[in-house]
Amino acid sequence: MTIYLVDIEQVMHSCPAHTETHPFDIRRTLVDVTPGGPCRAPVTIRCGDTVTQIPCHRHEPAKRQCGACRVIVTERTITTRTLATEVAA
């Protein structure tokens, strides 16, 4: 299984239209990738007289993929910044 390690930074603010604080800028930074290796359950595809095999992640839904083709995204850190709202007097 391929594991992606990411850092998330989100900036929160409130505006006149939506007074409750909400994120308006979310950035994800890819920190590390641990590859899962080659496919262990390739799928045979036939098109006319041509027969070929492709990795299962290109054909099967996630729950039917082999362990090497599955993807896991792990959030290492989540940083939240809130912008101050200025009120005109």
Question: What's the SSE blueprint?
Answer:
Elements (H helix, E strand, L loop, with lengths): L1 E12 L8 E13 L8 E5 L2 E5 L16 E12 L7
Describe this structure in words.
Strand 3 and strand 4 form a beta hairpin. The protein contains no helices and 5 strands. It starts with a strand and ends in a 7-residue tail after the last strand. The protein has a 3-stranded mixed beta sheet, with no helix packed on it. 0% of the residues lie in helices and 53% in strands. By secondary structure, the protein is mostly beta strands. It has one domain.
Radius of gyration computed on alpha carbons:
22 Å
Tally of individual helices = 0
Order of strands, main sheet, comes to 2-1-5
Number of strands: 5
Outline, from the CA principal axes?
Answer: elongated
How would you characterize the largest beta sheet? 3 strands, mixed
Overall pLDDT: 89
Order of helices and strands: EEEEE
Low-confidence stretches: none
Number of structural units classed as domains: 1
